[in-house]
Protein: tRNA (guanine-N(7)-)-methyltransferase
Organism: Vagococcus fluvialis
Amino acid sequence: MRLRNKPGAKETILQHPNYILTDGSDWKGKWQERFLKAQPLHIEVGSGKGQFIVEMAKAHPEINYIGIEMQTNAIISILEKQLEEQLPNLQLLLVDGADLTDYFSDGEVDQVYLNFSDPWPKTRHEKRRLTYKTFLRTYETIAKPKAELHFKTDNQKLFEYSLASVTWYGMTLKKVWLDLHASDFEGNIMTEYEEKFSSKGQPIYRLEAIFNGKEAE
């Protein structure tokens, strides 16, 4: 996803440290302190322009959310939405999703969302896919035992790859949707990409999987 540069984006981000951080390492293990109250913590890796994470925070005030995005020109759009909404259960983190263990302690996260991630279709780029085993290991490290991964995409090949990847990793597939919008799934909140692709008749694929590798202490 390539976005136009927004004048003053970096300056705006630095002016609002109460909502957005460019380095979350100081809050590792202490994220609940940035919210109004301690609640289950859900993160979205690759939040884009933020429609999903903002609407989820609005729909579920009983959950704390962190939107993680590495592109300044994308996350500034989320920040603009948050400045308008001022949701007490939403925080933003401008970092690379590959480095999550630098920013979250083991077992700190209750749920992980991946929405319309870059498919990286070439075989030589497999390791960059957000459902590749090293990413799954990272999510599992920062997640609580039996935490869930929720994944949506319009890309059939990436979805097939992800089904195989989570299965080989040892996760339990909780549920799979091959055409989400034609199903009876309730409470779906769409991303900007989802609105675009579904309006053209493109099926949306979704899965929920459970991490099994860690046992509760």
Summary: The radius of gyration is 17 Å. The chain is about 30% helix and 20% strand.
